[in-house]
Amino acid sequence: MPKRPKRNGSGEHGAPEVGRRGLTYAAAGVDIDEGDRFVDLIQRHVRKTHGPRVLHNPWGFAGLFRLDYNESLYKKNFREPVLLACTDGVGTKIRLAVDMNKFDTIGIDLVAMNVNDLVVQGGEPLIFLDYLACGKLLPERLEQIVRGIAFACREVGAALLGGETAEMPDVYRPDDIDLAGFAVGVVELSRVTDPGRVEPGDIVIGLESDGVHSNGYSLVRTIVKHAGLDLHRKYKELDTKRPLGEVLLTPTRLYAKPIVKLLHRYTVKKVISGMAHITGGGLADNLVRALHPGVDAVLDGDAWTPHPVFPFLQKHGDVSDEEMARVFNMGIGYCLIVKRAFASSVRQQLKRMGERPVVIGKIERGMGRVVIQ
Questions:
Q1: Higher model confidence: residue 288 or residue 80?
Q2: Among 161, 191, 221, where does a domain finish?
Q3: Do residues 207 and 350 touch, judged by C-beta distance below 8 A?
Q4: Residue 231: CB partners within 8 Å, gap ≥ 6?
Q5: Of the ranges 42-51, 77-86, 182-191, 268-277, which one carries the lowest mean pLDDT score?
Q6: Burial (0-12, 13-18, 19+ Cβ within 10 Å), 199
Q7: CB 3.0-4.6 Å disulfide test: which of 25, 100, 186, 344 passes with 245?
Q8: Helices (H) then strands (E): counts for the chain
Q9: Does position 28 have pLDDT exceeding 70, yes or no?
Q10: Domain annotation covers residue 149
Q11: How far apart are CA 157 and CA 62, in angstroms?
């Protein structure tokens, strides 16, 4: 794994000391020794994500990953491989993690927000990198985040190939943390998702979410503050075994693993017409990206029950139905548009893989809209 810390954000490993008794980097707020200790702490988590395609390159300036075809590394060759790449963060959900002093799930969110987007295009994740910025480098705290990142990478089959840790006391307050990620995947050109394949009669299957996931947390935190909610209290409307803060920190569901498995089972027939990861903008604004101008997705709003956290937030924040639907996933975290003849089989396969699939609508002739009835 390439060495992570570039702690002043300028690309330098560290600034020189000025004389034996003069100014030091540590005195300026950046502790190189703590950064090195952090790297040592996370090495075991990172190595667990490496497979035979990752080339050993300790202390290199970049991670190395094989793309050439080798029968012992790949089960099949890509005739026309296309690389996929995306980047995302966890937004202000990281602020909630700081408030709760709980950092073991936010790394899962980071990976999920990236690879769930990536598999929408029909591909599979290969590598992942993270960027972690903070005001004060606290190795044990940041190790929890990287542990979550590594766990999620193993779950989805991506190698955690490297990362950057920036300690910037002049930019962030001591408790502040910012988190972003970058994923790269691969897909066969002929298998790239194409909205033009969506046809009237196709079925829309929704995969239930585990809660708020990682969008809308500026509104979530405003509701908590406005209503005087206690993050450490257990509310009967929610999970009585966990305080509100932990419920809100429930990580984004990792849809990538079951989606990749499903896609691999249909290597000839194009059973899945389109997909959408339901993030900021809600169900309507994300599913519409999977449509072409000649069709509508007509959804039954009563086909699923929103996760309890949504009515809880809506009630305490006095938020309108329209605003809730525009900001949150409202219980559906991922959508697949499937050929009618295969819809039942796809649902059963997803159930066996641990998902909670629900038929939420169908495709009709239209104008490229999502209509929720």
A1: 288
A2: 191
A3: yes
A4: 96, 99, 100, 224, 243, 244, 245, 248
A5: 42-51
A6: middle
A7: 100
A8: 11, 12
A9: no
A10: yes
A11: 20
